[in-house]
Specification:
Elements lengths: L4 H5 L3 H7 L3 H4 L5 H21 L1 E6 L4 H6 L3 E3 L1 H10 L4 E5 L2 H10 L4 E3 L15 H10 L5 E4 L4 H5 L3 E3 L4 H12 L3 E5 L2 H8 L5 E5 L11 H10 L4 E4 L5 H6 L2 E2 L2 H11 L3 E5 L2 H10 L4 E3 L13 H10 L8 H16 L19 E3 L2
Parallel strand pairs: 1-2, 1-3, 3-4, 5-6, 5-7, 7-8, 8-13, 9-10, 9-11, 11-12
Helix pairs in contact: 2-4, 4-16, 6-7, 7-17
This protein binds 1,3-dihydroxyacetonephosphate and iron/sulfur cluster.
Iron/sulfur cluster binds next to loops.
């Protein structure tokens, strides 16, 4: 029998038929020879999703072959949380980090939530514990606690309401209004808190946490990018330090940055955020040139096609949350979801002279 190299590599006629329509989505990023190596895994994942009634929630920081070729729902943390609450699928595979999978489990306790790597953590989520929040509440009685979704279920359970970078300003103003105060505790990202404080009249207490990806960008980086790329449009994530946002043309969540590029079609753009985001937005906007200095999130990069396939084949790793903690955390997440959608994700624009009043730590 003649040797069939395609069949030996797994890139069979059947795989080709199942994946040919997907290749144009990533062609500008993935060369053909590489595609033929990964297409069998993509085909198998998409078959298993149908067999197991599973959906893949893919965060904007996933690599393009995951984001475009196997992700069913794509977006920022807020969009993924909303969809986890709504999906009819029985199994959710979280192509994102552990706190996102916990949020899905909190919102859909009757579903099986899988994460391809239990090691996919987050420097913000690991910066604070439930006990830390209890101490903060003792230190600031009566002050509402707003928690960034980048936290564990145990931390969410101690708080009044959650927020994401899409709605942080709206949520903080709402929490202060409800509590009849002019102060909120917004934890654990000190930079997000500073950026929110700069946009509101609120006094903001925060925590000494930071995103290990975004805290590394500096205002000098932005000035150098502008000097080397005249006319470039600079978009930054609000987990960056305020000095970075001050140098940017626009700041917003991952979804807000993506929408900005889609709507404005700048000639030349740089996204001050995690690396894969630029790849994904560039593939969807072929007319826009991207400058690509970026920092990798080592946690997000633990999610791979092979890991997703393994999760679907074996049911590993199932994410569970203690039902008592989950019930309390759900209230905080649900209060956020129940707020009117911010519509277009909020843009961060600083008012001069406002800052957090305190950065707390253990
Ligand atoms: P978004 O909510 O903007 O998607 O951000 C999540 C995140 O982890 C950013 O580092
Ligand atoms: Fe956490 Fe930062 Fe990675 Fe987002 S990019 S998951 S905030 S470490």
């Amino acid at each position: 029998m003649a040797y069939d190299a395609d069949a030996a590599s797994g890139y069979t006629d059947e795989v080709r038929a199942k994946t040919d329509h997907l290749y144009p989505l990533v062609e500008a990023k993935i060369p053909r020879f590489e595609w033929e190596l990964i297409a069998p895994t993509i085909a198998r994942i998409n078959d298993l999703k149908a067999e197991k009634n599973a959906v893949i929630l893919a965060h904007n920081y996933m690599t393009p072959e995951i984001f475009a070729c196997v992700g069913d729902i794509r977006g920022d943390s807020l969009q993924l949380a909303r969809e986890a609450a709504k999906t009819d699928a029985q199994v959710i595979v979280q192509a994102g980090v552990h706190f996102m999978a916990e949020t899905s489990k909190i919102l859909a306790p009757e579903k099986t939530v899988l994460i391809p790597s239990m090691e996919a953590g987050c420097s913000l989520a690991s910066s604070i514990t439930g006990a830390d929040v209890r101490l903060l509440k003792q230190r600031y009685p009566g002050v509402p606690v707003v928690t960034y979704v980048n936290t564990t279920a145990e931390v969410k359970a101690e708080t009044d309401i959650c927020c994401t970078s899409s709605n942080a300003v709206q949520v903080c103003e709402h929490a202060a209004r409800e509590a009849g105060t002019d102060t909120v505790i917004l934890i654990p990202d000190q930079f997000l808190a500073r950026n929110v404080a700069a946009m509101t009249d609120l006094k903001v207490v925060t925590w000494a946490g930071a995103c290990e990806v975004h805290e590394r960008f500096t205002a000098e980086d932005i000035r150098e990018i502008r000097a080397g790329n005249p006319g470039v449009t600079v978009l930054a994530h609000p987990e960056c330090p305020p000095e970075v946002l001050a140098e940017a043309d626009f700041a917003g969540s991952t979804a807000a940055m993506s929408n900005y590029v889609k709507d404005e079609q700048p000639k030349n753009v740089v996204l001050i955020t995690e690396c894969s985001m630029s790849d994904n937005v560039a593939l969807e906007n072929p007319g826009v040139d991207f400058v690509r200095p970026c920092n990798l999130c080592p946690h997000m990069k633990r999610i791979t096609l092979e890991g997703i396939l393994h999760s679907l084949e074996t049911g590993e790793h199932e994410v569970t949350v203690d039902p008592v903690i989950a019930a309390r955390a759900r209230e905080a997440v649900q209060r956020m979801i129940d707020l009117p959608s911010p519509g277009a994700p909020a843009r961060f624009e600083a008012k001069a002279g406002r800052d957090v009043i305190s950065v707390e730590h253990r």
